[in-house]
Structure formats: C-alpha cells, structure tokens
Amino acid sequence: MKAVVSILFVFIFSFSFAQKMKQHRMKNFDKKAFSFGFTLGLNSSDFTVYQLQDAYESYGLVSITNKSQPGGQLGILSSLKLGTPVLRLRLMPCLSFQERVLEYRSIDSTIFPTGKGEERINSTSVDLPLTFLFKTKRFNNFTAYALFGGQYSIDLQSQQDASQNYIDPFIKLNRFDIQGHIGCGIEFFAPFFKFALELKYTHGMTNSFIQDYSPVAKPIDQLYNKGWWFSIIFES
Known about the structure:
The chain is mainly β. 9% of the residues lie in helices and 59% in strands.
C-alpha cells in the first residue's frame, strides 16, 4: 500500500507540471446537481489491537501483532453538488472483501503448542460510506480533492452468534461497525466520462471485539478495524 501512495503522489505532481492549457472536456459536468457511477479497487485491512494489561501474568501472552492483508471492493456511487462545484456529498455503497491476521507469541503451550500461532479473520462487508468532497478549481481536464466522512459497515461473514469451537477457537467480531475516513483523490475528464484515483484511510470508531473467553480471545481487550483503500472511480 505504501507503494500505491508513492505512485499516486508522483503521478499527481508529474501530471500537474506537464499540463498545458487545453480545451475543457465535459465542461458542464461540475454544474450538474447529481452524477452517478461505479468504483472498483484494492484495500489493505488491519486492526488496532489493545491487549489486556495483565495478559502476560494471566495468560502467558508475550505479544499480539497484527498483519495487514490485501483485499478488494466494488460499488456504485451517487454524488450531490452542495451549492458550489467545489463541494459535493457522495454516497458510495460497496461490497468489500477483507482479511486480517493476528500473530500470537505465548509461553503458555495450552494456547499454541509451539508458542506461536496466528488467527485469520475474514470479512465480506456491505459498506455504506457518506463522504464530503472538497475539490480544487478545475485546471484544464484535471482536478484534485480532499475528503472526509464516515461509513456504516455490515459484516456478512460475522460469526458473532456462532458457537465457539474450543478445539480450534476463533475470534468473534461484531456484525456492525462505524468507521471514520479521510483521504484525497485526483480526477481526470475524458471525452465521455470522468474517472478518479482515490486513496483513503479508515478507522473504526467502536470496539468490534466480542469477548467470549476462548483461549485466543482471553488476552485481548479491544479490536478496532482499520485499513487503506485505493479506488478507481468512473462517473458520468
């Protein structure tokens, strides 16, 4: 994901300096009250992990580390102009596929016989993000924007009501989550449509973790979803 960020910013600056005055394509696009489109992209999902302060004394836990994993998303969008072309409100429902990994190191062999182990948590989520976009004035066929907002997520793969398997225990997460997000993007106007490259960071505002006192859950206090999202957006 760091490579994607670097490439995006290099592309922005190189494109900006290379621009010469050109005829505007779709010059009335920003005057439209509504616009519609679709998006597809990649994400890198992760957790912010808080373990119990006495996790070592009580459960022999040395550490829990989280590893981000790649995923993807696709969705549709509708955008509303808020009085001026530089401010828009956007709703972009997405179906996202995510995976997160927790790695454990423990001196208690009853949890992991080798002292090390990992838990993989997969999610297929319906995400409902509502976002404010603050755009620059158009320069030729190019604009940039900053964004912030929030989203309500429904995890279709959540096992919050599933019976725990104490032979092969798993982490339970709440089915519903609220996340905030912030990011930026660049837009390009083609002859018949507009497309954008967008990068945003999301972080959960509520604790998603369900404590059921299974061996892998006992040392954990809280888990918050977080991640980077890279999207390609087509709009007309």
